[in-house]
Design brief:
The protein has eleven helices and seven strands. The protein has two domains: 264 residues, Spore Coat Polysaccharide Biosynthesis Protein SpsA, Chain A, CATH 3.90.550.10; 69 residues. 34% of the residues are buried. Strands 3-2-1-4-6-5-7 form a seven-stranded mixed sheet, with helices on both faces. It is an alpha/beta fold. 47% of the residues lie in helices and 10% in strands. It starts with a helix and ends in a 26-residue tail after the last helix. Helix 2 links the parallel strand 1 and strand 2. It binds uridine-5'-diphosphate (UDP) and magnesium ion. Magnesium ion (MG) binds next to loops.
């Protein structure tokens, strides 16, 4: 169990020294990009600017040749921003010298924190573990392959502070081979259609979250591509900002064409999770009613034929259809009921209002309430 409060004091104490020495004049030059096309859900002025410490969460797997340069560029950008920060590397089962390098870097820079997985568990698990130990008020995720540009962090924070909970990077000028970008377009288009979240680029590793978001969404499997969808489903405000993207110069991409198929399967999962997790009977009940209803009607017609018209029905295909519909329909019901039991099991545990709230008024008790609580 990680003691967040204890760490937090540490973080503020250890990194403030770094922040103090950072001259504001060295703010990174941020080339303006075309922001007009960026999507944003409604920004509301009632969201206070997030001004606390930053946690950089960086999953790395076999990125030995990129980390030193990434660390140095990050440090330049973060010191210029001038807030306390921590750089949290999650070594996701590297088989090269990545961990040894992280250990060496940590000796030089105490703001580095690191987790090392026993084996490769995937980027989503790495991010989820990073979220669990991150201590900053803002959590920034980026890839460890130097494709994301640390100089953009400043703009992303600025944009978030216009009233969003999550700002997702958009690799508008994506520097990847055609074989990657074309399937990615198809994927993004489908996700937009299915989920209604109008981002251009769901799979960008470069994102910034308020801590409430990372504390609320649940990442596992390969759901890291869907954090904006999961966040939007929880009522968080999501926006997108074009960011610079660089080609990979060292090491190789960990994802091939298989990611497209997995991505679509995960989209189905996410669709059902965000729409029916709390009411599975609504999903299974309708097909259940339809199937049983039609099956019973056909059965009644056959009974009429047999009893009143005195026809033989034993060999009629309709009989088989009637039986099939009733059996399948009943199964749908049973699935819906099982789903309800599962959902109830989750809810029967102590209710946790915090995960639903933006803020509260006059509520007392030793609890952590979301940002903006009065
Ligand atoms: N990564 C990881 N675990 C994995 C696959 C990837 O931690 O199982 C990391 C990887 O080291 C990199 C980031 O996730 O820092 C993005 O991976 P990659 O650059 O291969 O993805 P692409 O840019 O090709 O989409
Ligand atoms: Mg990459």
């Amino acid at each position: 169990m990680i003691e967040r409060t204890a760490h937090m004091t540490n973080l503020t104490a250890s990194s403030q020294t770094i922040a103090a020495g950072a001259p504001a004049a060295t703010l990174p030059a941020t080339k303006p990009l075309d922001e007009s096309a960026a999507f944003a859900s409604v920004a509301l002025a009632d969201l206070p600017p997030a001004e606390g410490p930053l946690s950089l969460v960086i999953p790395v797997m076999n990125e030995e040749g990129n980390l030193r340069e990434l660390h140095s560029r990050l440090t330049t950008s973060l010191q210029a921003i001038g807030r306390p920060y921590e750089i949290l590397f999650i070594d996701d089962g590297s088989t090269d010298g990545t961990w040894a390098l992280i250990e060496a870097l940590r000796k030089e820079d105490p703001s580095i924190v690191a987790l090392r997985h026993r084996r490769n568990f995937g980027k989503a698990t790495a991010l989820a573990n990073g979220f669990s130990v991150a201590r900053g008020d803002l959590v920034i995720t980026m890839d460890g392959d130097l494709q994301d540009d640390p100089a953009e962090i400043y703009r992303m924070i600025d944009y978030l502070n216009e009233g969003y909970d999550l700002v997702s990077g958009w690799k508008q000028n994506r520097q990847d081979p055609w074989g990657k970008t074309a399937p990615s377009r198809l994927f993004n288009w489908t996700v937009r259609r299915v989920t209604g979240v109008q981002l251009h680029d769901f799979n960008c590793g470069f994102k910034i979250y308020r801590r409430d978001v990372t504390d609320t969404i649940r990442l596992y499997g390969e759901l890291h591509r869907f954090t904006p969808v999961l966040a939007a489903a929880e009522g968080f405000r999501v926006a997108e900002l074009p960011v610079r993207h660089h080609p990979r110069t060292w090491g190789s991409s960990k994802y091939g064409i298989k990611r497209l198929i997995k991505g679509f399967l995960d989209l189905i999962t996410v669709f059902f999770l965000t729409n029916y997790r709390q009411r599975p009977m609504h999903l299974f009940g309708l097909p259940g009613i339809l199937a049983v209803g039609i099956g019973v009607l056909i059965g009644l017609k056959l009974t009429f034929d047999r009893l009143v018209q005195d026809q033989q029905i034993g060999t009629r295909p309709l009989l088989m259809l009637a039986v099939l519909l009733v059996v399948v329909g009943t199964q749908f019901f049973a699935l819906g009921l099982l789903g309800e039991f599962l959902a109830n099991g989750r809810n029967a545990a102590k209710n946790d209002p915090e995960r639903y709230l933006r803020s509260a008024l006059g509520v007392t008790g030793e609890r952590h309430w979301p940002t903006g609580t009065v």
